[in-house]
Amino acid sequence: MPEQPPYLRIADELRQRIAEHVWEPGDRLPSRAQIGQECGVGENVVRRAQELLISQGVLEGRAGSGTYVAEPRQRVRVVRSSAREQPEGSPFRADMKAVGRQGDWESRTDAKVPAPAGIAARLGIGEGELCVRTAYEFLADGRPVQLSTSWEPYDLTAGSLVVLPEGGPHAGAGVVNRMAAIGITVSHAVEQPEPRQATAEEASLLGIQKAALVTHIRRTYYSDQGRPVETADIVVPAAHCEIVYEIPISR
């Protein structure tokens, strides 16, 4: 069996000290040099161990001050389910209400944006064809907990009242209800979640450590004719949110 990398061993040691209340939430950790000397490793090994624990929400780094034991946070539950598409109301707001928080979001829409190659492939259109792109920042009690960037083919909604997802009489109604307003039936969605590290921009928007772990969900809605009508990249910070999938069962 291969030997465990040194930084993982140190991360386990630091995690154990926290579990045994050697360090309490809010306590400042000793210097990397001191920890390295105690554990028989170099400062770079300690730094990698601390970065791992910061990405997991166990520690937090404070610029110019040091590394601290993170205060425990209640993770926000984000429910993923096609059954949560409702004629009225927002599933995100319902999730936040369930944990006693106020849910809201901010958005910015750009129309007639050329589709990058990856987005075009997901939408079944040619690279460079025009799309409506909307960037969302979802908030719980005013704090960002989720990011999303959606893309819709411009020719699908051009000239209609739903061309802007967050504008007009159907603003904020969601993909299923907006498409229904122009006679398109959305039959299903496909989601592909995968873990990765946050980019610098995502970390800044979400208020998390750079390279912290996030769940990246690629979601695409399809019409009953099999056409992709919207695709989105959803980013959820792993340390602050838990993702739960509800599976509806037909009887």
TrEMBL record:
Classification via SUPFAM superfamilies: Chorismate lyase-like, Winged helix' DNA-binding domain
Chain ranges of the HTH gntR-type domain: 4-72
Listed name of the protein: GntR-family transcriptional regulator
GO biological process, one term: negative regulation of DNA-templated transcription
PANTHER family referenced in this protein's UniProt entry, alphabetically: GNTR-FAMILY TRANSCRIPTIONAL REGULATOR, MANNOSYL-D-GLYCERATE TRANSPORT/METABOLISM SYSTEM REPRESSOR MNGR-RELATED
Gene Ontology molecular-function annotations: DNA binding; DNA-binding transcription factor activity
Entry keywords, A to Z: DNA-binding, Transcription, Transcription regulation
